[in-house]
Amino acid sequence: MPLMRPLDPAFPIDRQIALETGPVVLVNVFTLDAEDEQSFLKTWQDDAAFMKRQPGFISTQLHRAVGDSPAYLNYAVWESNAHFRAAFTHPEFRAKIAAYPASAVASPHLFQKVAVPGICVG
Hints:
Layout: E1 3-4, H1 13-16, E2 24-31, H2 37-52, E3 57-64, E4 71-78, H3 81-88, H4 91-96, E5 105-111
Parallel strand pairs: 1-5
Antiparallel strand pairs: 2-4, 2-5, 3-4
C-alpha cells in the first residue's frame, strides 16, 4: 500500500470521506521512484478500472509531471462524497492499493467547485 501523506494534515482523507456532500473531485498527487513508474501505472490502471465501475463515478484523468520528475496527479469526479466513500472503503479497492510500489506516496484530498463571479460557476 502506498504511504498516505495528507495534503492537509489537519483534515486527512479519512475525515473528509465522513462528510455528506457532493459532487466532489478527488485530487491525488503521487510521488515515487523513477524505477517504479511502470509498476505504478499498471496498478493505477487496475484501480481506475475498478473505480470506473462504481456507482456515482463520473470521470478520471491521470497527469505526469513534466521533465524527469516521476510525480503524478490524478483527479476523479464523483456525484457525491457518499459514492466516493463507498468505492474508497470497498474491500476490493483496499486490497488493490496494496499492490502499489513501496516507493509510492499518495496525497489524496477532496474538493468541491467554487463559484467566482465572472470567472467560474460553482
